[in-house]
Amino acid sequence: MLREDTVFGPIHSRRLGNSLGINLLPTKGKLCNFDCIYCECGWNADGRSDTVIPTAAQVRSALEDKLMQLMLDCTPVDSITFSGDGEPTLNPEFSSIIDDTLALRAAYYPDAKVSVLSNATRVHIDSVFEALRKVDNPIMKIDAPTDALAALINRPAPGYSVERTVQALKRFQGDFILQTMFLKSDDFDSASPQVLGPWMDIVRELKPRLVQLYSIDRPTPAQGLQKYSTEQMKTLAAPLLDEGFNIQFR
User: Fold this and answer.
1) Within-domain flag for 118
2) CA 245, CA 142: separation in Å to the nearest integer?
3) How far apart are the C-alpha atoms of 37 and 172, rounded to whole Å?
4) For the chain, how many structural domains are there in total?
5) pLDDT in tens, 6-58
6) Which end of the chain is more exposed for a tag (fewer CB within 10 A), N or C?
7) pTM for the whole structure
């Protein structure tokens, strides 16, 4: 499910409303430092036919053209969302692109939010962190509380560390959104005590302003994955709800 345009949509999102997407990565390939077993874009190995990354100037031009047309068409935009075919912060001009987007948002859709969906692998880099601090919704991912489980679910590039990611996310001082996928396979179960308990401890440590729990919604590249229902996830997250954490389920 690769995005074929740098700017695409808007599409309706249950979390973000009418969301205009920005893909900072190749439009006919995939570029990510995770290779998640549930990724709707497929395996990294299947998306290497295109390695061209859009420049900041190209993104700005495409975004301005799109916003201008949407405004003339009276199309609402609730969120300008960086998602796309992989990890958006891998674009070397990510910081400049965020600044350009904020300026265009102010000119065309000042009430729209700017959101970034990221796997949080590069938050420890100062320029990436400072750019993420500027957006309305930095949505950061932690699917697993241990490196061993992250290796099964996210299949990260060498050097990934859950602990380093947690320490980097502390810099937000709670002003971010934490996103976690709940699922199970023959090899692991997000609901098992040895996974659920440590994950909840990470939530307590980071104190994000919002936690988004979700499960499989589309076909996955790995076979045999099982999803959790909303009601099941609410039951699993009950201790955090009782402690006052703001949690969305989908």
Assistant:
1) yes
2) 16
3) 28
4) 1
5) 999 888 877 788 899 999 988 777 889 999 999 988 888 876 666 789 999 99
6) N
7) 0.93
